[in-house]
Design goal:
2 copies of one chain form a homodimer. By secondary structure, chain A is of the alpha/beta class. Chain A contains 11 helices and 21 strands. In chain A, strands 7-6-8-10-11-12-15-16 form an 8-stranded mixed sheet, with helices on both faces. In chain A, strands 4-3-2-1-5 form a 5-stranded antiparallel sheet, covered by helices on one side. Chains A and B meet through strand 18, helix 7, helix 9 and helix 10 of A and strand 18, helix 7, helix 9 and helix 10 of B.
């Protein structure tokens, strides 16, 4: 069974539809005729994308309008005219020496699927070059150097992918590129941005992860605006951190630039799904013009990236809940080399779990406490439970997000020597992930 | 070691301070003299509360003003005058037959700690009667029937506490009370409200859980306003569900009434920490006047509560993250009788974890998918991963919060017979926890 967003076609169709199209050798871009339920439809077969129904083929009619036709048993498909294979529709532009180079490193995800509506051309939706070709305005801003690194659903990203991706960024930035844009699936984009943040030290120029909540074949797609805003931010701003750029509102007006360690996907489907937690977005990029910074940020420099890709893979993130089984979770923790707890309120767990955490720490497995509230800060000095956790040796995560604390602990374990040094790293702000304030209050 | 918010005094002092006070037999309410760092302070010893520093005693000066005095080595304490023990300062009012009865069932938490600033009287802060006595205006609205059920930090609440609490509510409502107010620690108040929501069927009158983010000895305490608004909502509205009532903003102007299955603590410390997720608060209660409803709700009736307290305790809530160990989590799931996953995006996990979930379902352990985004809805029909999860037999949780899905699965397992019936309950809206819409979009 395949979970990858495969380069093959019809990958997300129901099997019956896929087989019907294959039997007729109908390919994307072909003019086809569909006979279903006694009705006939003629149009260009469009790529099937993530948000489409598996039983439905999308046809671009002569009018330019797209319709979805649901295939049922007995439906017939015939090819009226094969697509003209003329290769890439957009030629790679010549390098313009007056412009800066920006790397685009493709990883997959919804953003990597698109159709060019202006030309009607159908693209296989997987090459980063094709992707940036849908945004020709990017070439007015910079020389785009596009490459595909992966083509996967972001829920399948793991530590090795982060390391490979970070390495690719280092190559690009250390060869002088003005920035890296990384189209990425939104599901785990916040984890990847945190991982890159820690792995890339002394960053001289920006790294922007950018996603889309609507695939590019939908009129409401946010891929185009987000990519264009990313290019502008790379070239026109002086910021040099790992960021996520996504819609700031559900309308196409402004993008938010979130710090890579402070950002979380907070809605399953809205275009403005990403939110900075415990700080405002670092900047807003108006789709029509200016870039406005909300807070301090790392500035561009001429140095090289220091590459620190090592990570301890066996770290667990555990959400505390009332009545959780101390025995079962003690076993789980025991099979890891580090644990992040997403505790209740200011960073609490039940009395039973306090004992489990103490024994876990005593085994030499570091435990970091964060809050499932997400907003605000852990404070283990307020209540008995918190003080017992401190006594047990639990490390307070401050206002670091649970997911970011997970990544930081993975990175910290691999980049420090011994308990004391790790503890110091975890309670110190390294990449903007932690406020100096002990508590964020109203 | 004790984690309970004990009825004993000085429970949250540092040991050295506690011992110093004990040695001098200084009790709360005593006029004491403190000599520290060459300075002398005289005042009434106030109770030590959750947000205070462990080394600091709070004295109420003659002026009525409170000061904190930090004790150090060499500090001296002497008792100037013992507190007059005259028992309860507020007499229980006579039952007014023209007014409705409202039950107040104390469980502990920050809200249960208070000092009466108007009289200077010091209360041990644990009796529900004392608690409501701090809000004498409640007696203008209803006859308050106060009782203490527990006195614990809410992170120590578990299934048995929920069952006992639900039973107490049934007793009160079935004896004719107009509503139940449950002061509760805020950490796990959302879990308790969900548990009561499912356990109490055909609710004829409202149950309001109410907390405070500031203990009552702080000028900024939200205990008073929240309790008073709860009494007004019980008596003056016609709503009959399980709700959480907390500040709607960080100022003292409006309370929000959240549906018990839709609410989550979203900030560690703000007074407006609670938010309704995927719907607006059911109602807003102006601290000065009116009650405004935002959406449909269950109306009061004359029936009895149907008590359905059974719960399967061995249910796990698991947060998906990239790189999580399939082996370790498969073992964890195998030791439970039900599993709720807080997946990424529309409800996804990595390909490895899809296989683990399939094997878990095949063992007869139901798995419910929710989203760690919190906002929006799971939709397993969009991507490959989702469809594989459906094929594996994973139950989609729609827009039910992960924590509410956990409680619902605990309840569903104990109140249904067999897989099919459980699945039907999980995908059906039972207590307002699930929208009929398949996807909440922008």
């Amino acid at each position: 069974m395949e979970w990858h967003l495969s380069a093959g076609r019809f990958v997300t169709y129901a099997r019956s539809v896929s087989e019907l199209l294959k039997a007729e050798k109908a390919e994307e871009g072909d003019m086809i005729k569909v006979l279903t339920n006694g009705k006939e439809h003629v149009g260009i077969l469009m790529p099937h994308h993530d948000f489409s129904d598996p039983d439905t083929v999308v046809l671009k009619l002569k009018s330019g309008y797209n319709i979805g036709v649901r295939l049922a048993e007995g439906s017939k498909v015939t090819v009226v005219r094969k697509v003209e294979k003329k290769g890439r529709h957009f030629k790679a532009k010549e390098i313009d020496p007056s412009k800066k180079n920006v790397a685009v490193i493709g990883t997959g995800g919804t953003i990597a699927s698109y159709v060019d509506y202006r030309t009607g051309a159908v693209h296989p939706a997987l090459s980063a070059e094709d992707l940036v070709a849908t945004v020709p305005e990017m070439a007015d801003i910079c020389n785009v150097k596009a490459r595909v690194l992966f083509s996967i659903f972001s829920e399948n990203m793991d530590v090795q992918h982060w390391q490979e991706l970070a390495g690719a960024v280092v190559d690009q930035l250390n060869s002088g590129d003005e920035g890296c844009i990384i189209p990425h699936g939104t599901d785990t984009m916040g984890y990847t941005s945190a991982a890159l943040s820690f792995m890339l030290e002394s960053l001289p120029r920006p790294v922007l992860l950018v996603g889309a909540q609507r695939s590019s074949d939908r009129p409401s797609s946010d891929a185009y605006t987000n990519l264009l805003a990313s290019a502008r931010f790379c070239v026109q701003s002086d910021a040099a951190e790992v960021f996520i750029l996504m819609h700031h509102t559900s309308s196409d007006t402004v993008a938010a630039v979130h710090r890579g360690t402070r950002v979380r996907k907070m809605h399953t489907s809205r275009r403005d799904a990403f939110e900075s937690v415990n700080e405002p977005p670092v900047a807003l990029v108006d789709f029509e013009g200016g870039i406005k910074f909300n807070s301090a940020y790392r500035k561009k420099s001429s140095g090289k990236v220091a590459f620190k890709p090592d990570m301890e893979k066996e770290v667990a993130l555990i959400h505390f809940y009332p009545g959780m089984s101390p025995e079962a979770f003690e076993k789980l923790m025991g099979s890891h080399n580090g644990v992040v707890i997403s505790g209740s309120g200011l960073g609490h767990v039940s009395a039973d779990m306090v004992k489990v955490l103490k024994r876990t720490v005593d085994k030499g497995i570091p435990v970091v406490m964060t809050s499932q509230c997400l907003y605000g800060s852990v404070n283990l000095n307020v209540y008995y439970t918190g003080r017992d956790l401190l006594t047990a040796g639990v490390i307070p995560g401050g206002d670091t997000l649970p997911e970011t604390a997970l990544i930081k602990l993975m990175w910290g374990l691999a980049n420090t020597n011994g308990e004391e040094e790790l503890r110091k790293v975890m309670v110190t702000n390294i990449r903007g992930e932690l406020s100096d304030r002990r508590e964020i209050d109203d």
